[in-house]
Structures are given as structure tokens and as C-alpha cells.
Write a structure and sequence with these properties.
Two copies of one chain form a homodimer.
Chain A: E1 19-20, H1 23-31, E2 35-42, E3 45-56, E4 59-65, H2 69-75, E5 79-92, E6 100-111, E7 113-114, H3 118-132, H4 136-139, H5 145-150, E8 151-157, E9 160-166, E10 184-192, E11 196-197
Antiparallel strand pairs in A: 1-9, 2-3, 2-5, 3-4, 4-8, 5-6, 5-10, 6-9, 7-8
């Protein structure tokens, strides 16, 4: 993947100055997340399913029960729209109209490709584990042949993708700047809280 | 909305014990979030767009530029799948296979209904603002007639919906319980950081 020229469906049409198509921006946003929303057309209807993902090379990798609807559909080459969003803050303006949300999002369109080879499957699952906790893969019991068989893994190439980012403070109208209203940004942060050991109580 | 019987597309098929269809569970998950992922079929392809939402009565309310693709499509009665997901923690098991993520998610299928009346539009926008900060609506400059016109607002009834929840610790195989591996949950929390006043520096 190099910088991808926007296609008709990845070109950011509303507020085009928020759009970005360069590899660094897109991969940076993908690498900061854990859960994506996968959209597929199923029976003529859009279905949006949240699922864990990892970015491996120039692809998004998804996994699930090999019998699940998503793995079946994508493993057979079905098309998906994968969206990753980070909500970074509330933008509090002096007028109701200019309130907004700071965010970073990426949309990827692509067809699924089943990963079948055991070694490649294991490598993809390792990528998932390393996102949760670096070094984890070498600490835990590795998957058995049966477990690998029960796990469906698909890749979606990051070839047709775009990012959209809003950052910074409110953009108020000049005539509102004198209003006696608190204006600014309330940042939202995702943090890892203290780990709870299994067996130590309710969690 | 009362308890909704699962339909063919809302019935949770994988791990059905994680599914829930009761009003309290569904509304509780919706009321805990700010950004949803809206899936629509556009030109035969699934498109998943992140956007702010509010739950007002028994509907999800979305807004955007009245000229945007999403507002145009949903305002004309187009069908959407709206998904809200909270990622609550990483589940660290003793085996690679049993690693998981704790989450709460809701999927709603429905057709958009444009909200056109000025008073109803303003009430919907108030609901958005009150989610960001209670009491905010009365503090800021209210929307002008022109701003209201530029804002598209649609509701999607919460009539066909399901929730899916995973909570608690790892579910390891009995033969792995003796392994010398840290197992438990790493909770993820979304927190509001210290607000940054507009004009006080970079944000």
C-alpha cells in the first residue's frame, strides 16, 4: 500500500479538508484501536458487526468462529466496509450549532481473503494477542490444531481506504466570541484500569 | 418499545447466551454511548459511517448536514443498521484460544424518518447537547432558523433491536487451570480528562 488516491466511495465529500489518504495517517489510526465495525450486505440489508481486529502489514485481519456469519461471508470473498473510530473529545462551542466531536476514523473497503495455512493463521492470531499485551503469545498455551481449525481468519487488504480527522477547539462565529459561555474541548481518553486477576473476585 | 422478540436478523446466533432483547438492557447500552456506527447500502455496497447519536424516547436520533449522504438517504426513509459498542476490557486467558474482549453492543435495524418540524428538531438537538454536558442547551446561543435548516435530523425507531454482552473473566479449559500464566481481565475505561478552555493553548 502506498498513498491511495481517493475513489468515488472513499473520497471525503462533507468537509473535505478533514479527509486524508496517506498511509501514515491511515495506519496510525488503525494501530491505535482494538475493535472495528464491519459492514456487510446480507440479504440486501446492511449489517454492522463489532469485532476485534489487528493490522498486519497492509491488511486488516479479523477472526471468529469459523462457522460465524461474518467469517463464512468474508472467507468466501465477500465485500466489507471496515470502520475504525476513536472518539477524542467533545467540542463545546459558544453556539449550539458549532458543537462537535473530535475524532479519528478510517474506512476501508475490500473483499475478504480467507487465511487457511496453519502457520499464517497462527501468525495472525499472534498479532491479536500482541496488541492486547506485548509478549503475551509466548506466555500462554498455543492453539491446538483443533482450535486453529475452529477459528476462521480473514484478511482485508487496505487498498481502498480513507481517514477523516477532526481535532482542535470550537470554530465559533465571530459574533459569538464575546458570549459569556465556557468554550473548549472536553478530551475523552481510553485507559487501561488495574488488571483483575482471575479468581480474585467479581469482574 | 416493549421487549422485542428477536427477528431473523436480530437473533444472536453465535453464543446465543450472550444475546438480550429486553428494553432495559438495550436502552442502557445506548444511553452509555455517544458515537454509533451507521451501516447503509449505497450503490450495492455496505458503507459504515461513525456519527454522534442520542436516544430520544424509543428512537435513535442522528443529525448532520442536511446535504450529507447519510441525512439524504435516511431522511428519505432509507434503511440502516445502527450499532453501538462499548469495549469494556481484555480477557486474558491461560490459552491463546480463550482470549476474548468484554463488550456491550446493540444492533438496531430500521428506516429513517426525517424530523422536519422546527420545534421537534430543536428538541432532538437539545438531547445531543445534554448528553455532552447536562444544562448546556440553556447556556449557549440557540440555533437560528438558518442553522436549523442546514441541520438534517432523522430518527430510527428502536423496534427491531438486540443486545450482545460479554462480561467476566476468562473461561479456560480445566486442563489449563494449573498453567503458570497470569489470567484475568484488563478493564478499559473511557474517562473525561481535564477540559481545555478555548484560547488557552493547543488542543
Amino acid at each position: 500500500m502506498t498513498t491511495t488516491a481517493p475513489t468515488e466511495r472513499t473520497r471525503v465529500r462533507r468537509l473535505p479538508d478533514r479527509g486524508a489518504y496517506d498511509r501514515d495517517t491511515i495506519l496510525g489510526i488503525l494501530d491505535a484501536g482494538y475493535v472495528c465495525h464491519v459492514g456487510v450486505v446480507d440479504g440486501g440489508h446492511a449489517v454492522v458487526i463489532p469485532t476485534a481486529y489487528a493490522r498486519v502489514g497492509d491488511a486488516i485481519v479479523l477472526h471468529g468462529s469459523s462457522k460465524s456469519r461474518l467469517m463464512t461471508l468474508l472467507g468466501a470473498g465477500g465485500e466489507a466496509c471496515v470502520t475504525v473510530t476513536h472518539t477524542d473529545g467533545f467540542v463545546m462551542a459558544r453556539s449550539a450549532f458549532h458543537h462537535s466531536i473530535n475524532y479519528r476514523s478510517v474506512v476501508v473497503f475490500g473483499r475478504g481473503e480467507a487465511i487457511e495455512a496453519e502457520a499464517e493463521k497462527a501468525a495472525a492470531l499472534e498479532a491479536f494477542m500482541e496488541r492486547l499485551h506485548p509478549g503475551r503469545w509466548r506466555e500462554v498455551r498455543p492453539p491446538s490444531a483443533q482450535e486453529l481449525k475452529a477459528t476462521g481468519v480473514v484478511r482485508i487488504p487496505i487498498a481502498e481506504a480513507s481517514a477523516k480527522v477532526r481535532r482542535g477547539g470550537p470554530l465559533d462565529d465571530p459574533e459569538d466570541m464575546g458570549l459569556d459561555v465556557w468554550a473548549g474541548v472536553v478530551p475523552l481518553v481510553v485507559a487501561r484500569a488495574t488488571p483483575i486477576r482471575d479468581g480474585s473476585g467479581p469482574m
